[in-house]
Please model this.
Amino acid sequence: MPQIRMLADKVRLVSEPADKFKTGCVSVSMALPMDERMAANSLLVYLLKRSCKAYPELSLLSGRLDELYGAVLGAGVSKNGEAQVLTLSITSLADKFALEGESIQLEAAQLLADVIFKPNVKNGSFGEESLAMEKRLLIQRIEEEMNDKRTYAFNKCISYMCQNEAYGKDKYGTVEEIENVKMADVYDAWKNLLSTAVFQITVVGAADADKVASVFEKHFEKIERKPAGIETVFIQRGRRFNHFEEKFPVNQGKLVMGFRAGMQHRRDNIFAMTVMNDIFGMGTYSKLFMNIREKMSLAYYCWSRLVASKGIVLVESGIDTDKERKVSAEVLSQLSDLRNGKTDPEVLESSKRALREKHTFTTPEGILGWYSAQVTCDEIITPDEMVSGIEQVTMDDVCAAAKKLSIDTIFMLSAQEEAENEV
Model:
């Protein structure tokens, strides 16, 4: 069981020690509302990763990480429900491997805290050159996602499906918003982050939670906290079916079908929903894989994804463009069969075994990811609790969960005639 303690208002530390690992990981997840600051927030997290007051150049910070036996500093941006989550993390060697008896974990935690709380800022500026570079890199990340047509189609379906909801926004903000961010916007975003973000500090592996807690508590003592309220809108049923299509020079069409999962919150019926989604389209034994891909050869791939933090299910498939209607009809037919219990009883046990393995984490990074993803949850659920809940799911529960799914949006990325090689 993880140890949980509050360090300040809406600042939670979650730790799960494990001496069997040679490394320790500390991650700081910072959740903010998806508002007009999203582009500035995205740029901010990557600017913070570049330097801090003690190590004001990227080369100096890299040198310090080398001194910490090759510690690795990471940064990222994600969506968690209708929250934008900025993450900074550090992975370092366990103290028992230190050659001179120093505490690698404590020094790594101090460096991570310095990056967040003591950035390399002069007169409210992170440096115009650094900002310009991070703008270029962030726009490049967005363009790379757009060039990956599978990712593009998935994100496009969400943007149409949730166009009147915050979840429909890109996690980074738009290219235009990023280009228009000024230095003052980034500095304001940093000040806003420290006072209003919901923080979760996750400590896993060989890292000493008490040492990490003492480092961060000192910093939060100096900050006046006014945490933002973060709520996600859950729409339980598709209100009006929508179909959208774009044509692009690809050899393989991308079909994405968006369903509302009938959930009122992210934990609503979560065990049955997880098993249902696995049987519907996650495993190699699933209805979508076994029938649409294998038996009927209608798709190059076909699988489903449950986004519990928003209460939606997305079915993704790579198909020949002229098979769109046939594939979409067959997806709905497979869902109908699942609702009516037309599934081999052995599949339920196969699903439970697979989900049990999925929630058995063998690396500190896996455990870290599990707990970090719960930054916006009031209560933490452990992998063991998740597995225990899954074990109790019956086929009747699966059928009932499937009956809650309702189609909302279809997005089709169609191949143009005389398509060139797929990008």
The radius of gyration is 23 Å. The domain at 3-220 is CATH 3.30.830.10 (Cytochrome Bc1 Complex; Chain A, domain 1). Residues 419-423 have pLDDT under 50 and may be disordered.
